[in-house]
Amino acid sequence: MGWASCARVAATLLEVVAASAAHAQLAGHGGAVRALAVSADGDSLLSGSFDTSAIRWSLKTDAAGEVLRYHAGAVNAVAFLQDGRMITAGADARLAVWTAGRPQPDQVLEGHTGPVVALAVASDGSTLASASWDHSVRLWSLADGASREFEGHAQNVNGVAFAPDGMSLVSVGYDRALCIWRLPEGRPEMVQLPAPLNAVAIAPGGEIVAAGADGKLRMLTADGEPAGEVAAGSAPIVALALSDDGTLIAAAGIGGTVAIVERKSRSVLRTLVGPGFPVWSVVFLHDAATLVTGGADGKIRRWNVHTGEPVGSSLFGTSADPLAAYAGDHGADVFRACVACHTLSAKEPQRAGPTLAGLFGRKIASLSGYRFSEALKTMDIVWTPETVAKLFEVGPNAYTPGTKMPEQRIGSAEDRRALTDFLARTTSR
């Protein structure tokens, strides 16, 4: 199974909502943390999630400073610019440029036709690169939003990075290809590697590090020549980070561990072991002694790189089981497959899907404040216990073609009735 498929499966199993009590209205993610970035001044952390939001956190207080909501799908990639502005990129194929404190993006960049999953910012701050599952890489001018498309990959492009001198761009894809794009012409040089590639990073000296679905890191020279490899684990590596000085590599795996690799010696120094959920994102803080990880459980953790131990409470915000009050309720147990995307109350932070508050009696795709698929807006369905039961009897793809909802069915009529009874009790408040 490719990492994209694993991401969709993992996302349907999440059951965690995070909340911070440090400030009013500051809520954590309700889905997998897919991307992390640290500001140039080291004061802020930016996280992107399957719940369609990005959050700017204060690294001094571990409190959320603001929640950024624009995308109609998962926020798969985030970045800071040198001037403090932020970039988010989503499954909706859009990139958004934000200024801290403003509720809407300053600029929206459009051109991709598939999910955008990776970003890179040139060292001079003038140019942005994006990698997409539309099989392309795009280079964007941050001055006017103009873009250039680089085509060469045959499958999803999963990672992109600028060389330190800004004269080349490297992309990797599920087609096992590593492309070195010589700038400004964009002339490609392609290297085929033994496994599908999920991420790429470039060290200060120009060495390229590519992460494979076979659990291996492969190092190449700036010209694409083989320069070594490291077995970082047995599970696919889905995220990479380099310390600022390039001496350490963090390789995050879908199996829930993160290998800390000394780049020069090509050796694994230690392995960070979390609660077993896939780790989808990693970033070093500028002190090179602290690593931050984002997991499929919606939690952001801090680690001491030298000891491999969690730092302090290690979590940003707090966590709670949103269904704890319904322990022993069969309908709540069935609903657990839905809680990653939907809340029962409109007072809870929005997740990837619309809230189910007031569900029964509501026409499909009519809830204000949520971006529904265009296909759903033309349907004449009113949600009732019967229509919800039918949705899960035949599956969302058959009952509501064009939906963004992950495909899942409930084969048992008893389970479907338990779910609709549960929703009738909990969503009418």
UniProtKB/TrEMBL annotation:
Residues 326-427 form the Cytochrome c domain. WD repeats lie at residues 26-67, 68-98, 109-150, 150-191, 272-313. Gene3D superfamilies: Cytochrome c-like domain, YVTN repeat-like/Quinoprotein amine dehydrogenase. Keywords: Electron transport, Heme, Iron, Metal-binding, Repeat, Signal, Transport, WD repeat. Residues 1-24 form the signal peptide. It comes from the Bacteria. One of its GO terms (molecular function) is metal ion binding. The keyword Signal applies. CDD domains: WD40. InterPro entries: Cyt_c-like_dom, Cyt_c-like_dom_sf, Cyt_c_1A/1B, WD40/YVTN_repeat-like_dom_sf, WD40_PAC1, WD40_repeat_dom_sf, WD40_rpt. This is C-type cytochrome. It comes from Bradyrhizobium hipponense.
